[in-house]
């Protein structure tokens, strides 16, 4: 099984990179993509945990935003971690998350919720990329809500009065820099409408021009019509279809390997990468 989109506690998952590799191996995953948000911080630990039977694809899920404020996530795989321009984009995006979190907390405080930045930071593992899931965990710890899911449904969704946008590169810029760093670029769950506004079909032309390689189609947040629309786009532009779990440990319901990529499509993607290689034990 090939699962190209997972997270650890280096961003907003709950497993350590080592735990993720061990779970993936136990569950029959043969190719595992490690794609923490806006960071490569889990790469070394995951690599050191490898054993025969599983290949590791190192990457990152880059937070991007269109000029009209629509959130888009781009999976960059097999890029050169030492590429200075891409590394700077990841750093700038992570740094901006601190100010954004402070503004969200201020809005929650104004609405009567007793939560502090210290409460949120207590939920982070060392060096983790800060995100709303950590705020959700803090709200659970303070017994304001019962679960991450309730926190997002009630307080932290993109249409909430407490929502605050954040700095992100445009999807085109993210894709261009992934490609310059020798990686492959896949748009993650592009029509997952439960997460907020989604991009239009027309938006794909400039993404393809920037170098987009594929579309994550098989994903639990895509309906059957969403998947069909994605396949039409794949056929129009000659893109590569992928499927992934978007696993977050206990942070989400998503299960390792619940959606996968075919070996044929993975071989095409891997052959396009020049910045990094698949890691094997």
UniProtKB/TrEMBL annotation:
Cross-referenced SMART domains: POLIIIAc (SM00481)
InterPro entries, alphabetized: PHP_dom, PHP_domain, Pol/His_phosphatase_N, Pol/histidinol_Pase-like
Domain Polymerase/histidinol phosphatase N-terminal: 2-66
CDD domains: PHP_HisPPase_AMP
Lineage of the organism: unclassified sequences, metagenomes, ecological metagenomes
Cross-referenced SUPFAM superfamilies: PHP domain-like
Record-given protein name: Unannotated protein
Gene Ontology molecular function terms on file: 5'-3' DNA exonuclease activity; 5'-3' RNA exonuclease activity
One Pfam family hit: PHP
Organism, as annotated: freshwater metagenome
């Amino acid at each position: 099984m090939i699962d190209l989109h997972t997270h650890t506690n280096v961003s907003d998952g709950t497993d350590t990179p080592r735990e993720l590799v061990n779970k993936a191996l136990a569950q029959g995953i043969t190719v595992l993509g490690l794609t923490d948000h806006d960071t490569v911080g889990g790469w070394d630990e995951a690599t050191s945990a490898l054993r025969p039977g599983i290949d590791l694809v190192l990457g990152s899920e880059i937070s991007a935003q269109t000029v009209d404020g629509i959130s888009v996530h781009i999976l960059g795989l097999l890029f050169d971690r030492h590429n200075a321009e891409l590394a700077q984009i990841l750093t700038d995006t992570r740094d901006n998350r601190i100010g954004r979190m402070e503004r969200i907390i201020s809005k929650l405080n104004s609405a009567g919720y007793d939560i502090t930045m210290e409460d949120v930071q207590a939920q982070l593992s060392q060096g983790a990329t800060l995100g709303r899931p950590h705020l959700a965990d803090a709200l659970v710890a303070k017994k304001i809500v019962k679960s991450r899911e309730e926190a997002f449904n009630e307080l932290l969704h993109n249409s909430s009065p407490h929502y605050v946008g954040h700095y992100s590169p445009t999807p085109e810029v993210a894709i261009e820099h992934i490609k310059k760093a020798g990686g492959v670029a896949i748009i993650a769950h592009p029509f997952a409408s439960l997460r907020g506004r989604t991009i239009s079909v027309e938006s794909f032309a400039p993404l393809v021009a920037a170098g987009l390689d594929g579309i994550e189609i098989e994903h639990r947040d895509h309906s059957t019509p969403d998947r069909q629309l994605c396949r039409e786009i794949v056929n129009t532009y000659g893109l590569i279809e992928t499927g992934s779990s978007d696993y977050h440990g206990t942070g989400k319901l998503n299960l390792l390997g619940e959606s996968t990529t075919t070996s044929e499509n993975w071989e095409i993607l891997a052959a396009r990468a020049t910045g990094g290689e698949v890691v094997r034990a």
